Amino acid sequence: MQFTGTYTAIVTPFKDDNIDxxxxxxxxxxxxxxxxxxxxxxxxxxxxxxxxxxxxxRLIALSVKFAxxxxxxxxxxGGNSTxxxxxxxxxxxxxGADASLQVAPYYNKPxxxxxxxxxxxxxxxxxLPIILYSIPxxxxxxxxxxxxxxxxxxSVNVVAIKEAGGNADRVSQLRAVLGNKxxxxxxxxxxxxxxxxxxxxxxxxxxxxxxxxxxAHMVRAYSSGNTSLALKLHEKYYxxxxxxxxxxxxxxxxxxxxxxxxxxxxxxxPLVPISKASRDKLRKTLKHCGVLK
Length: 293
Fold this sequence. Notes:
eight-stranded parallel beta sheet, 10 strands, about 45% helix, about 15% strand
């Protein structure tokens, strides 16, 4: 199974501190209509850190149900405890997910050998394809290029990486050691085209929560060789790519979705709504890009 293209890091809608299932269904249906290749529930953007196990598994099951086989579901099932990551991954497999996104263990800062042993154990415990997730800005560690290479050759189901370190040179290094079969996805909307220029195959996107059709169009244009159209789309929507990170993700993207009437702007502490200044700037950007009237 290939994991190239556009995958939306889907937000988790809340209402009265519960999962807002109707809002989640609307959002996933808008992704299908927008032409994305898949969704990634219960990742960073899905506020996985504030969900209990039951909610986490329920969100994956709901995502599979609402996706209805029309787009892929890559379940965020990583953790800083290997036992927890295995449990969530096995539950995601039972729920019908197409793959698992495995973030680097955060806070405890394992060595590269520890990272290898962690991901190896998860990969051995499931038949699901594993997409590694390197995001040193949140985890405090990077999944080393050699560690990725070792995992890819050791475990047949380690098939891809979401690269969110902000460094295009890493993409070149990964491509050099892993060849073309191993999939690299950008973890940053603003860097999708630069990463694809040196060998990435698409993006796990925050912006596509808001503009799924536009992000998918940009990625497909570049992949098909229409680089001028891809660049034009990048330039048009770059202000949105940037302003959706004006404060901590996913607070701005939830604010944008609320402005569009798609869900309540509700979070769980310690996340809080964005400031008035940030909200005004974001609203202005959405209007300027033609997303909001």
